[in-house]
Amino acid sequence: MPLPYPSGWFCLALSREVPAGAVVNRRFMGRDVVLYRTRGGVLRVVDAHCPHLGAHLGAGGVVDGEHLVCPFHRFAFDVEGSCVKVPGGAPPRATLAQFTVRERSKIIYVWHGHDAAPPAWEPSELPDDRFAPAASWSTLLASHPQEVMESFVDYQHQPIVHNVSLHEVTPPVDEGPLLRISFSAAIRLSVRLATITVEQGLVLSGLGLASGEVTLHQVGMTLGVVLMATPVGPWQTHLRVAVVTEAASRADSPRLRKAASMSLSAVAGQALVRTIAHQMGQDARIWNRKRYEPNPQLTPGESAIGQYRRWVRQFYPPDTWPTGTS
Ligand code: FES
Ligand SMILES: [Fe+2]
């Protein structure tokens, strides 16, 4: 693999995919992990294999109250990962390895740090839990998060691949693990909403997450857009797109207004997700077959890519810095 796994926050699921009592399987960085939520609502992401004799907890494991119970010998683990109950006897001092997990805007992220380093920042600039995905889409790519996120500073491909005119407004601003990108774009939503011109920003939050806001002036609505690239295996990336809105839980507005704005934001959210999914499909044709180019020959108009390549180095251990980022 020409690029190692980067440190950062990576999406494993939307919150609604893991309701109370659920046990859900995912691949993450070449291994199996299990997400579960207790009856009391506590979310955990753990190593898929039981520390007793290695059974797969996502293959028959169940939530019992606040415990996750292994299907093989019914060892029960609490939310700290400790084995607290075994049938007929004292529990051994077995511990189930856990990942650091966050839920933001009803999206579930886990942290990956090199040498088990703790989180160095928080996952998203859309922290408010009143926001929830109104629409989402995902696909599996033969690519790496660094390659996917690079497309947001690659302005030259926009008119060619997407037939979209997108211009850099100011150079990217490096804020440690965040990279602020601002551009103007004319986007045509794939419903009868007219072409909208957005002058906007996108914030890369490590290599797993990009978020921003899109304002639809015609309908006076702002939608949050979250693009998430999760490395599931070597050169395999699960790409998710979600449009989040707050209308769904704006409890203080009159009922009818709430219902109307909910359906409008759902329609707009779905249109925006369709538009982004269409563009990502166009990118995927390139991403799935391209190779990583460690020493790109950039034109003077592509300085944002050079800046991006320097910024990404912080997400890899120094001895594994990808070439071409100096
Ligand atoms: S392997 Fe899980 S309880 Fe034995
Ligand atoms: Fe693109």
Automatic annotation (TrEMBL):
Q: Name the keywords, alphabetized.
A: 2Fe-2S, Iron, Iron-sulfur, Lipid degradation, Lipid metabolism, Membrane, Metal-binding, Oxidoreductase, Steroid metabolism, Transmembrane, Transmembrane helix
Question: Which cofactors, by name?
Answer: Fe cation
Q: Which residues form the Rieske domain?
A: 9-110
The record's principal subcellular location, in a coarse class, is: membrane
The record's subcellular location field reads: Membrane
Question: Is Protein biosynthesis tagged as a keyword?
Answer: no
Give start-end ranges for the coiled-coil region(s). none
Identify the EC number(s). 1.14.19.21
Spell out the InterPro entries in the cross-references. Answer: Cholesterol_7-desaturase, KshA-like_C, Rieske_2Fe-2S, Rieske_2Fe-2S_sf
Reaction equations catalysed: cholesterol + NADPH + O2 + H(+) = 7-dehydrocholesterol + NADP(+) + 2 H2O; cholesterol + NADH + O2 + H(+) = 7-dehydrocholesterol + NAD(+) + 2 H2O
Subunit structure, per the record? Homotrimer. The two-component system 3-ketosteroid-9-alpha-monooxygenase is composed of an oxygenase component KshA and a reductase component KshB.
Protein family per UniProt: Belongs to the cholesterol 7-desaturase family.
Protein known as = cholesterol 7-desaturase
Q: Which organism is it from?
A: Streptomyces sirii
